[in-house]
Amino acid sequence: MDSVIQLILGGFGVSDDLVSLCKSYMSTLVEEGAMEQWAMDRVIGQLEEELARRREALIQGFKSEMEKFLSFLPLVTIEQFKALEARVKALEERENTCN
């Protein structure tokens, strides 16, 4: 499971690397006069926004898939466990009063 999480987190880190790489290449174009600073800022801003949308979609998709996966496992919620615990205590008290 650790390797899966590392792959997922690594995938999220790629977008940060991509933005950094684009800034580096585009800064060279700005320095050479082939591109205006405002144009670079606009493109980088659009790239960051799109990558943020994609990151959020990936996170939501991952959460959804994990919820589906967990629904197949015989797990109980904390609330269900506490309710069961309360019922067991009530039965124990009832048994003790009957004896």
Describe this structure as you would to a colleague.
It contains 3 helices and no strands. Helix 1 (2-32) packs antiparallel against helix 2. It has one domain. Helix content is 88%, strand content 0%. It has helices spanning 2-32, 37-71, 78-98. The protein has 99 residues and is mainly alpha-helical.
List the helices and strands and how they pair.
Layout: H1 2-32, H2 37-71, H3 78-98
Helix pairs in contact: 1-2
Protein name: Polyhydroxyalkanoate synthesis regulator phasin
Organism: Acetomicrobium thermoterrenum DSM 13490
Describe what is shown at a glance:
By secondary structure, this protein is mainly alpha-helical. Helix content is 88%, strand content 0%. It has one domain (1-72).
